Amino acid sequence: MKRELFSLQDKVALIAGGAGDIGAACARAYAHYGARIIIFDRDPGKIRERLDEWKKEGIQADSYCGDITDEGFLESMVKEIAAIYGRIDIALNNIAVTNRKPMLEFTTAQWRDVIDINLNGAYYFLREVGRVMCGQDHGKIIQILSTGAYRFGANFSAYGASKAGVSALVKCLAVEWAPHNIQVNGIAPTATETGFTRDYYREYPERMEATIQNHPYKRLGQPEDYVGAAVYLASEAADFVNGEVIIIDSGKTVK
């Protein structure tokens, strides 16, 4: 067996939502495994914080600031990255939003916002990355999903629908792009201590405790819990893995 099976040496990795907690943890891991990383996010302050943080560790990263729902931005960014680096080997999408409201309290605009960012944004991003990867006949795509795509509950209608839709997109593209030697897979995190959940659980500590007790390991996920799967799916070790979703939740969904 090759000892370099999980090496990402000199691979070009593009991380959407790379300034967010899970995206940043995966980007950092890719860098430590040898990849050249590029992140994009819509918050310039958060991008700067991540770049400064990584610089102290000797990690260099390029960055772009933009919105995943802006098709023109995505097209120009991906083309520029491909021109600069000559290829894109790995693409991970970590961008998502939620809105924890009862269905009957949603406005149409609020519904569309969740669907547009989580589902349409994933489509826009993967479409542009796919153009490059299909042209070069190789690539690894990792979509961050959620256990909310498979385990449903009240007040998660827009989020659950969007994540279930992206899960289907992953599986469809896995088949469609297989002739181009592209592997398209997903990672489905559970409730995780990130900026995505921090304010909500601060406001509703009893719900956080209930969520913790619903996990067999009696804790929330941490961003670092997902980096092993992210490195694996981006590496040569996963060359025959396609259309799969790795659920990481301490066993919550099998209860």
UniProtKB/TrEMBL annotation:
The keyword Ligase does not apply. InterPro entries: NAD(P)-bd_dom_sf (IPR036291), Sc_DH/Rdtase_CS (IPR020904), SDR_fam (IPR002347). The keyword Oxidoreductase applies. PROSITE patterns: ADH_SHORT. It comes from the Bacteria. Keywords: Oxidoreductase. Belongs to the short-chain dehydrogenases/reductases (SDR) family. PANTHER family: 5-KETO-D-GLUCONATE 5-REDUCTASE, OXIDOREDUCTASE. This is NAD(P)-dependent dehydrogenase (Short-subunit alcohol dehydrogenase family). It comes from Enterocloster citroniae. The lineage of its organism: Bacteria, Bacillati, Bacillota, Clostridia, Lachnospirales.
